[in-house]
Amino acid sequence: MAKIIEMPTTPNFITSNFRLVRSVGSVASPYTGKVRTQEYDGVFWEASVTLPPMRRSTALNWQSFLLELEGPINHFKFADPDALTNTGTYSNPNLRSDHRINASSQTLSFNNTNNVITGTGNVFANIVVGDFIFISGAEDNPNNGQHKVTTKTDSNTIRVDTTLTTAINDSGISIICNQKGATGINLDASSSSATGTIKKGDYLQITSGTATDGDPVQYVMVTQDATLTTVGGSADLYGVNIQPKLRTALSDNHRVRFATPKGLFRLSTNTVDWDADNISNYGISFSCIEVV
């Protein structure tokens, strides 16, 4: 079973290459030139980093770390070296996944003219503008999938950012959020006193569960400033665009770390090495890949 090895914290890297790798298949028609694409689940971060020259007394900490990783067998927590601190002002280390909607066997109407979805029974009562919903079971495929709420008229009527197909009283529909494949997640602050912004370019750490000290299972970047809804006397609400998409669904109250977020990585190769000169200045570089 893989162990998590603690990475030294100093010195920081002097150069880094941080990249997101996607598994996308594409087919081009030889007659029209049109291209059809399909993205698969293999989406992950990779990095190549270089440490500054250091004396042996410092280098031995990195040598020991690299050897304990045993090639790609063991894991370590790692973050984009040039973005260790987020620019948003959110004041608590953690946020929580919030299932503001989790409804099944619903009857909805979809309007192509204004992209409005209408339900019954106050189905959208807990949804706020900026939230993301995931619809499945609709008869017309454009009505399924992820939608961002742009306007809420009342607890049964919302407008979304996607182009819908008109359908009246479409039944047997499920409406959920924070599901596998989502690129928009609904979060709330970890307490009524926690507040602040989540900004474009910030990273988030999807943890392993509801514990505040859970290990990372995915590392994602915020791609738009999050929508903040302030709720008096209660926890603030956030609708957050992310990339890449969620690998697994988040349970209600699943922890998402904002302060010093990290992902779980392993070495890319079986070999580790270092250079040294005649006065024991060491040079160390390595490459790593996110654990998926």
Question: Would you write up a description of this structure?
Answer:
This protein is mostly beta strands. It folds into three domains: 15-82 and 265-290, 2-Layer Sandwich (Phosphorylase Kinase, domain 1); 94-98 and 181-259, Elongation Factor Tu (Ef-tu), domain 3; 103-176, Elongation Factor Tu (Ef-tu), domain 3 (Beta Barrel). Helices cover 4% and strands 41% of the residues. The chain has one helix at residues 56-68, and strands at residues 15-21, 24-28, 35-39, 44-50, 54-55, 76-78, 94-97, 103-111, 116-118, 132-136, 145-154, 157-160, 167-176, 184-189, 203-207, 216-222, 227-229, 237-243, 255-257, 263-267, 275-276, 281-283, 285-290. The strands form five sheets. The chain has a six-stranded antiparallel beta barrel. A six-stranded antiparallel beta barrel has the order 8-9-12-11-10-13. A hairpin with an 8-residue loop joins strand 15 (203-207) and strand 16 (216-222). The longest helix has 13 residues, at 56-68. It starts with 14 loop residues before the first strand and ends with a strand. The relative contact order is 0.22.
